[in-house]
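Thread amino acids onto this structure.
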């Protein structure tokens, strides 16, 4: 066996693991990413980045690179396929970014390599053991078994997480009763009703029966669509069985008749409405993030985004702990903040599934809910929930409208002119916006790594300074002294 050492081992090179690894590398933390698969699959999988995820990528200067690989922007989201818009949220990105998960992974891995860190592919974790000082991970490669020691281990290895199972952490939830299929289909002739460009969630999906559904999403390439179908009240005996191309062709014929002709089915996969969440996200020196911590039906397009936002929350906290900038207790705030967010997503997904039009009563409920969703306050609540824009972390002490809230990234006026505050977050430091330098020392007592920016004013009355965490949430304010 080979004995190596590192600060953090990240298991899994999906969007969550790669985001976390980038955050750690940015803070000069030595990180190793172990990925079971020998190469990226290239499968499109998830298709969207929500507005809050776009905001977080912008904090690191990564959004432009992601946008270059995207194929569309979608002006609205949805709740149970009822469209909701992002009006009422103060965001520069009031849209979903249409981009295949494979492109997100490709970009994040390139950024990680540019920081000098590579993914060790074909590395399958077998077992791990932790003590009070370190974690020892045993894994298998084509060359045989190897062992790697680290200060911390993070499982970002998906729904069947080896790390979660190795911890023995409970994964309570419900198995559900339905299923869905996603397939990327190339048409010679697309169905007449299919949209040519994906600009809205309206008319993307629809019920085909009391519990069955179908949908088509254009993927930016001529004739290429994401075909979605399923049944929320029944499922195959073996949910892990492969999807044959004949099954997909039959479903297309049942859904759209012979008005469409298919030239190629590029891939297909089955998913379920099982909903589970890890009882704990941390056990000593081992943590969980992304699908290793929570799984759910992909209603509202929240899954990939939830994992990336987990990683952004955990990254700076883990870096601060490893580098000795913070006490170990800071890591406990990861679970304290993100576990309720994950629970809320599982809750809203269950509510969306509850709007399945199974009966006369449920159809009436769905119609009434659609009317309510059009009301501005209800729309804002729903869109903030599925987009991540509505997340606000609890804070203690002084009550202030900024505390716990996200950076809105509107221009601030400085001595050299207008400035986007997001540009101050590129190095992953805390950011202090202050109208007077007198608060700098106080802010440094809250954060070792600090970028300070003098501004002409702040958008809150009687406020002289606001301190933002590296993930863009306000954690400290200084009120204007009373005269």
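Threaded sequence (483 positions):
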């Amino acid at each position: 066996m080979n004995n190596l050492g590192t600060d953090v081992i990240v298991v899994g090179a999906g969007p969550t693991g790669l985001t976390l690894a980038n955050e750690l590398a940015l803070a000069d933390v030595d990180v190793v990413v172990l990925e079971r698969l020998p190469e990226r699959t290239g499968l499109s999988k998830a298709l969207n980045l929500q507005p809050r995820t776009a905001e977080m990528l912008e904090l690191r200067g990564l959004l432009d690179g992601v946008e270059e690989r995207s194929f569309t922007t979608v002006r609205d989201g949805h709740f149970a396929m009822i469209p909701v818009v992002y009006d009422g949220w103060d965001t520069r990105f009031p849209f979903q970014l249409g981009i295949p998960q494979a492109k997100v992974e490709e970009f994040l891995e390139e950024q990680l390599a540019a920081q000098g860190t590579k993914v060790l592919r074909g590395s399958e974790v077998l077992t791990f053991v932790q003590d009070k000082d370190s974690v020892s991970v045993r894994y298998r490669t084509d060359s045989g078994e190897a062992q790697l020691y680290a200060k911390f281990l993070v499982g970002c290895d998906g729904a069947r997480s080896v790390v979660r199972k190795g911890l023995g952490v409970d994964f309570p939830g419900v198995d559900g009763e339905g299923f869905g299929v996603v397939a990327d289909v190339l048409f010679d002739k697309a169905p007449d009703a299919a949209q040519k460009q994906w600009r809205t969630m309206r008319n993307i999906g629809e019920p085909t029966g009391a519990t069955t559904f179908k949908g088509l999403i254009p993927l930016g390439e001529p004739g290429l669509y994401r075909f979605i179908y399923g049944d929320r009240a029944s499922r195959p005996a073996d949910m892990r069985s492969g999807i044959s191309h004949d099954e997909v062709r039959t479903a297309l014929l049942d859904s759209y008749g012979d008005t469409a002709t298919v030239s190629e089915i590029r891939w297909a996969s089955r998913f379920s409405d099982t909903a589970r969440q890890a009882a704990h996200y941390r056990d000593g020196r081992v943590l969980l993030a992304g699908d290793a911590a929570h799984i759910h039906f992909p209603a509202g397009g929240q899954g990939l985004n939830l994992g990336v936002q987990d990683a952004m929350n955990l990254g700076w906290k883990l870096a601060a702990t490893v580098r000795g900038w913070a006490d170990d207790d800071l890591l406990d705030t990861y679970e304290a903040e993100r576990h309720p967010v994950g629970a809320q997503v599982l809750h809203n997904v269950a509510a969306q599934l509850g709007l399945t039009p199974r009966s006369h009563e449920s159809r009436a409920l769905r119609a009434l809910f659609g009317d309510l969703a059009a009301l501005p306050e209800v729309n804002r609540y729903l869109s903030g929930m599925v987009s991540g824009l509505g997340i606000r972390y609890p804070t203690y002490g002084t009550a202030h409208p900024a505390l716990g809230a996200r950076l809105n990234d509107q221009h601030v006026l400085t001595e050299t002119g207008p400035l986007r505050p997001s540009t101050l977050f590129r190095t992953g430091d805390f950011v202090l916006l202050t109208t007077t330098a007198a608060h700098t020392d106080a802010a440094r007592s809250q954060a070792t790594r600090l970028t300070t920016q003098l501004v002409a004013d702040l958008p809150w009355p009687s406020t002289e300074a606001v301190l933002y965490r590296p993930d863009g949430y306000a954690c400290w304010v200084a009120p204007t002294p009373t005269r």
